[in-house]
Structure formats: C-alpha cells, structure tokens
What does this fold into?
Amino acid sequence: MVAVESCGQWMVFSCDQKLVAVHRTEKREAFVFDCSTAEKRTKSTEDEKLSDGSTQDDSGSDRILALAVSGSGKLLAVTDDSKRLVLFGSEPSWSCISTRWVARRCTALVFSQTEEELLVADKSGDVYSFSVTEPQREGELKMGHLSMLLAVTVSPDNRYIITADRDEKIRVSQLRSPHNIQSFCLGHQQFVSALHINSQHPLWLLSGSGDGTLKLWELERGRRLQSRDLRKAETETESSESQTVSRISSSPDGRHVAVQCERVSTLEVFTLQEEGEEKLVPHSSLRLPHCPLDMTFDLEGRLWVLMDSGDEPLRLYAYEQSSWECDAEDPELNRVTEAFRPHWETLEASVRTHNRFEQLQKSSYDNVSAYLQKKQQRLEEQQLKRTKAQRPNGNKRAKKEASA
It folds into this structure.
C-alpha cells in the first residue's frame, strides 16, 4: 500500500514496508518505522488456533496494508502483511504505543470519533475492535460480512459504523450494537472501494466503486441522492473498464471534495451544497503530469498529491481566487519532498507492478447477444435449405405444364 496522510503538522507516508513521517514547518528529523525489523510474533502465539479451528499463518511480506489517522492527529495506526497492528502516538514526539496481532490480514482501519477504539476490517469480512485506552488488550469481534471488506468509516456523531464490501454492499450499522442495521446503500455495479463522510454534512455518505461512479447517499435511510459517472472524463489511453475510485477526501472546512481514480492522471474536485437537486457539483479537474498514488488535505485545506514519479513525487495545490493552483515553490512542499525522496526507491518497483483492485473486478459476459446471433444464423440456414428443396419441385411442375 502506498499512501499519504496529514497527521497534525506531519505528512505521513506508507512506502511498502516503511512508515515515514516528515514535519511540514520545522526542521525535525523524519520518523521512520520499518515493519521488516519490527517486533516478531512469539512461537507460543503463532501456535494458537483461531476460534474457527484454523491456525495462524504469519508468513507475510511485512508490506503495509492499511493506515489510519485519528481525528485529532495525535494517533496513527498501521497494519501489515505479517498481521501486525501497530499503534503510534505523534505528540510530543513519535512513539510506538503498542504492537498487537490480528486474526487475518486487514484491508481497512478507522479510529472512532472518541478515539477510544480502533476498528479493523479484514479480508474475511469481519470487523474487530481494538482498545486505544488499553493498548495491550486483544481485539474483540465487532461484526461481520459474507464478503471481503474494502472500506470502513464512522459517522461524525460516533453513532454509525459504515462498511463496504466486494459484493457492492454498503451497510450502515449502529456502532454500539452492530447487529442493529440502520440501512443498506445499494446501487453500485462493482465492489465498493472508498467511503467518506464530509465533516459539514454528517448525514451524507460518499462512496466510490470499481464501476467508476461516485455516489452520494442519505446514510440513515440508505437513499441515493446523486450519482456521478467519472468514466466520462477518461482519456484515449485510459480504459473505463478498469477505472476504480480509490480515494475520496474533503477539506477541513468541508467546502471541497477531491476524488482520485486508480491509474487516472486527473483528480476531480467537487463541492457539496444543500439546496437544489444537484448536491454534488463539479468544480475543477486537476490534470497531473503523472498518475496519482494517493492524496490528502492538510489542516490549512491544501491538497497534497503523491505521484508515481521519482523526479516529482509530490504536488501541492492551494485554493486561491476560486481556483486550485499548483504551488511548486512552497517551502513546506520542498522540505517534505527532500525528506521523503530517499525512501522513494523502496516502493518504486511495487508501485509499477501492483494494482490492488485488479483481482476484484467481476467479469461480465453478454450471453444474450451470442445466443441471438447463433439463432439468427440457424434461421438463415433453415431458410436456405427450404429454398433449395423447393427448386426441384418447381422444375417438375414447369415440365408438366409444358407437356400439357
């Protein structure tokens, strides 16, 4: 996983096996955590069996799979391919609070709004709750889906947990009693890959999918308010079939929503408005020189974009005079770029070869068209046979009439 997040005054990157945090405004040494040299699981723990009778399999690559930052920016968590779940504190300086172990490899993380628990979604469809206030306590099973979970988020009032899976379902459940399902948001045609709730519209849910659409929902009733097909903005070299929404993020003031699609070199920026039918309004299309790997807003509302380029790994956009402008000379951008550049090589190879959504696309077959084509061919062949059979009879009748 390659990601960038704003954590207070720090910009945090996940670079394959490494977590790198760089301070934006001060000349402080970058914090680097390498999962390949982190705490290993003990033999006794490895031999323990899961509740379903299966054994642990921890032969992972130590590659970071998911990352989450708390709302206050004081906490950060990562999970990796070796099933570690590591909790960090960023103030007054970076420190590792705890290292715990998950039952199965994780796909998404999110902190509760109170920052008392960390919710961990995994590939089997389960969500576990890990205590933040008791950082050594094991996780507890919270809820489950019948399919792999790909995204999870929590409503701003801490009432609902929203989960999305590979089978196009979005479920809104009560956080304190997840067996109580509030609603389903149904309508995507492919796996749901991204969820987001804007801070200024706490009852609206944004979702992105492998079907190339961005949808807006009223989450308590599961009612779809609007749908945007992002594939209309594709270029000649970018296939709409593989256009997957990979990230949705909004500015701290809630005015702007940025949407990123996998391997598409354009970021779409929208605004949200209460009045009128068009609640999700297009604002800008930011054309990038390289494909974006991830993006996020900082505390000042500026948009940071991590790109697939060793020469220019980062771009910074600021909203000025009703438009988004690239600021290549910003001192914070230059400071962060120089501190991050030495770690680029650790992820460059995997970035170019790995597409995390490639195996999730469902193939569709147009059997009806093939059936109709074969049927038409059979009808034409039968008609041809009838025509040939009628010709000899016609010749015999003509001879009889001539002889008469």
In short: The first strand starts at residue 2 and ends at 7. Residues 48-55, 233-240 have pLDDT under 50 and may be disordered. The two ends are 92 Å apart (CA to CA). The CA atoms of residues 190 and 362 lie 7 Å apart.
